[in-house]
Amino acid sequence: MIRTLTLLAASATLSLGLVSVATAAEAAPAKTYSNCTKLNKDYKHGVGRSGAKDKTSGTPVKTFTRNTKVYQLNKKSDRDKDGIACEKK
Q1: What is the four-CA torsion angle of 72, 75, 81, 83, rounded to 10 degrees?
Q2: pLDDT classification of 25: cutoffs 50, 70, 90
Q3: pLDDT tier at 21, thresholds 50, 70, 90
Q4: Per-residue pLDDT tens over the stretch 29-76
Q5: Other beta carbons within 10 Å of 31
Q6: Buried b (16+ CB within 10 A) or exposed e, 34-73
Q7: How far is residue 7's CA from residue 5's CA, in Å, rounded to a whole number?
Q8: Where are the domains of the chain?
Q9: At a CB cut-off of 8 Å and minimum separation 6, what does 76 contact?
């Protein structure tokens, strides 16, 4: 019985420690940005919806933040309509 209670207490403690830590940009509430300069201050390489791929003739940007909610609020800044707003290398 004591062993069971010890295991339960240990697993509860471990599960609390496994809560993921979000970056500042991910933790911030989704908001609309007036331009790409302002968006890129929070999302250095741009923001895109889940599953988006950069359309380019050169090397595609793969380091953008994937956040569909933020992308939806700022899709006016997605000039090439590839699902990534304000992408840059």
Answers
A1: -40
A2: low
A3: very low
A4: 899 999 999 999 999 999 999 999 998 888 999 999 999 999 999 999
A5: 12
A6: eebeebbebbebbbbbeebebeeeeeebeebbebeebbeb
A7: 5
A8: 23-85
A9: 85
Q: Which distant-in-sequence residues (6+ apart) come within 8 Å of 65 by Cβ?
A: 25, 26, 43, 45, 46, 47, 48
pLDDT per position as a tens digit, 45-55: 999 999 999 98
* The pair of three-digit structure tokens given for residue 49, joined into one six-digit string: 């919806």
Asked if residue 61 lies in contact with residue 89, where contact means CB atoms within 8 angstroms, the answer is yes
Positive or negative: CA dihedral 73, 79, 82, 84: negative
Closest CA to 84 of 40, 53, 43: 53
